[in-house]
Amino acid sequence: MPPDRTPPDRRPPRYPAPQFPPHQPKLFASTPPAIFPPLLGLLGLVLALRMAAEGAGFGAGVAELVAGAVLALWLAAVVAIKVKGLRRPGVLIEDMRPLPGRAGLAAASMSGMAAGAVIAPYQPLIGLVLLWGSLAAHGVLLGVLLVSLSRQPRAAWGVNPTLHLSLVGFIVAAPPLAQMGWSQSAVVIFWGALLAAVAIWLASAFDLARHVPPAPLRPLLAIHLFPAALLSVTAMALGWPDLGMGLAALSVGIAVLLLAAGRWIAGPVFSPMWGAFSYPLAAFASALLAQGGMAAQAGLVVTFAALGIIPVIAWKVLKLWPGNRLAQKTGAAEA
Predict the structure, then answer these.
(1) Among residues 240, 261, 222, which one has the least CA distance to residue 103?
(2) Res 323: pLDDT
(3) What is the CA radius of gyration of the chain?
(4) Model pLDDT for residues 177-215, shown as the tens digit of each residue
(5) What is the topology classification, in CATH, of domain 33-316?
(6) Cis (ω within 30 of 0) for the bond into 21?
(7) CA distance 223 to 165
(8) Are the C-beta atoms of residues 266 and 312 closer than 8 Å to each other?
């Protein structure tokens, strides 16, 4: 039988015809949870500015002006993420799978606690409702995360800094609750958050000694500063100055390590993960300001630095929100 000499098919492979008109997601259907870490940083900056103004005796007007603008921006983000969830409730479970989404959703409920603390001096009842409502939402998100992780391969269960947000994030509500007379609730939150934070620090140190995190995830290492700083603020609010000072010293040590490795952690170019730098920096400023004395003077310096850094990070992240660029970069699901 003669060999088959039929020439090979050299036609180009067929691809689906481009959709016309191009696919346009419905309003807020692709809202990325990654908008919330920088918003949490801005709300934390407002609280630090208030403390700085109280200690320095001036600048309260600037702090409240910033507070109004940040609350308006935060409210718009909350409406956007709620509309997304109402379009398809299961989409938030899908957003739990990638790390940026997991961190962003935890930051969303934590930002509600911070917003409650910002509002409380003017509207105590609204602030208290926001605090408790956000605590409940954070607990629900933690439950969803645990269910989501149970359905993923064991490789997805590794320790990473975003666990601080899910397990320790309740601590954001503790200082304002202590100031509003809910001291026993703040005490319970404090000790639970401290135990969780210590466990994550130890597990993370062991994991870091064995594995170097990939460059895109290194900014998340800054989250380790966040629990130490807010635990210190809470201890001071509860009237435990020695414990508060010790936790502030711990936060200084973590901050020094992060600063020393800053270029390696941040990487050569900006990424949306830089949002993880914002809220730890604001919390660190508040921790130093809460100590008084020379530490408060250092806290003023950190606060002024944060005033120049956090809004820039927030702008760089949030400007990617329109056009779904941030959703694409962070793997956000579409409702």
Answers:
(1) 222
(2) 85
(3) 22
(4) 999 999 999 999 999 999 999 999 999 999 888 888 888
(5) Glycosyltransferase (1.50.10)
(6) yes
(7) 8
(8) no
